[in-house]
Amino acid sequence: MTRLFDRRLIVVTGKGGVGRTTTACAIAVAAAQAGKRVCIAELAGLARVPEVFGKQGRSYAPREMAPGVDTISLSALDCMDDFGTRRLKVQALVRLVFHNRLTGAFLDAVPGLPDMQQLGKIRHLIEEPAPHDPSYDLIVLDAPATGHGLTLLDAARSLGEMTRVGPFYEETQLIVQLLTDAERTAILLVTLGEELPVNESLDLVEGLGEDRARLTAVIANQVRRRPLPPAPPWSEVRDWLRDQPELSDLADHAHQTWMAQERALSRLATAVDLPVARLPRLERVDLDGLAVLGAEVEGL
Ligand SMILES: Nc1ncnc2c1ncn2[C@@H]1O[C@H](COP(=O)(O)OP(=O)(O)O)[C@@H](O)[C@H]1O
Ligand SMILES: [Mg+2]
Predict the structure, then answer these.
(1) N or C: which end of the chain has fewer CB within 10 A?
(2) 3-state DSSP assignment of residue 215
(3) 20 lines ligand 1 (CB under 6 A)
């Protein structure tokens, strides 16, 4: 199977707050260090990616975040405009029709259309970059928390069923081909090493039905190191701490938390039957830290 960094698109999905954005940035930094030119694509204008690199603002034009790492923030409107220029060849008209206060209503009224416009832009950067576009080896998509990355695939499929013919239909077909090609696209599910997020991830995987086969791997983020060495046995350590009841309680607590993490992660690994990469909990999420996290997924 193709190595992770040799794919063209990595979709990073998972519930809000588990570390999707951090993971996407970590993959980008590690892939860039391995010689790839990478772009992190963010949807819906949240602009969390620049923050991770200590920068501000969002822009539709690619911006450099670190050596070899750009980011692009894709709003459905910008992408629609782009699509109008590239595929419909009627930019002025498209602007007139879509770039007014009704536009949002139009995009919202067609299920899957905003997603499809954004994925279409990503597909273009990968398959048919315009002369002025940078040429990226890899695009890492920080996918929205609503549902999961595979809802994007559903959106493309259902829009395809709605249109049947014409440029929108052709685009959705090409998007589905890209997303379902395991040689080119990897889909990663991020979770935490805790009982609740693991349960949620298992429910999510369960609900995927046949699309379950599209998942490439699971990323367990913020994994704690073992708080105390395995030997001497913890019971002995506790004896030594007899005169320090408070410290002893805290150490006990740290150990229990770690044990719960290990139980949750082994349950996860057994149930999903996919590779599970462990990303350590960092003290500081900086460029070096991101490279450390990214190195953990490189072997997937
Ligand atoms: N491995 C990690 N080590 C330390 N902090 C992390 C790690 N992963 C994520 N975080 C922190 O957790 C918070 C949520 O992460 P983020 O990537 O923004 O989540 P999401 O995109 O899923 O909402 C951020 O403050 C981020 O810095
Ligand atoms: Mg995020």
Answers:
(1) N
(2) strand
(3) yes
pLDDT at residue 78, as a whole number: 82
Ligand 1 binding pocket mutation candidate from 52, 53, 285, 290 (most atoms within 8 A of CB): 285
Q: Which of 36-50, 105-119, 265-279 has the lowest mean pLDDT?
A: 105-119
DSSP 116-157: HHHHHHHHHHHHS--TTS---SEEEEE--SSS-THHHHHHHH
**Tens of pLDDT along 228-269?**
776 667 677 767 777 788 887 888 889 899 999 999 999 999
Of 19-33, 102-116, 156-170, least confident by mean pLDDT is 102-116
Q: What is the CATH number of domain 4-298?
A: 3.40.50.300
> What confidence score (pLDDT) does residue 2 get?
79
Q: Does ligand 1 come within 6 angstroms of the Cβ of 22?
A: yes
3-state helix, strand, coil split of the chain in percent (to 5) is: 55, 15, 30
Burial class (CB in 10 A: 0-12, 13-18, 19+), 245: exposed
285 pocket-lining for ligand 1 (C-beta < 6 Å): yes
Q: Which of 12, 18, 22 to mutate to test the pocket of ligand 1 (most atoms within 8 A of CB)?
A: 22
Using a pLDDT cut of 90, give the percent of the chain over it.
50
Separation between Cα atoms, residue 200 and residue 300, nearest integer Å: 23
Question: CA 102 to CA 98: how far, in whole Å?
Answer: 7
Q: Is the CB of 191 under 6 A from ligand 1?
A: no
- Range with the poorest average pLDDT among 8-12, 162-166, 183-187: 162-166
Provide Rg for the chain, Cα atoms: 22
Rounded to the nearest angstrom, the gap between the alpha carbon of residue 105 and the centroid of all alpha carbons in its chain is 27
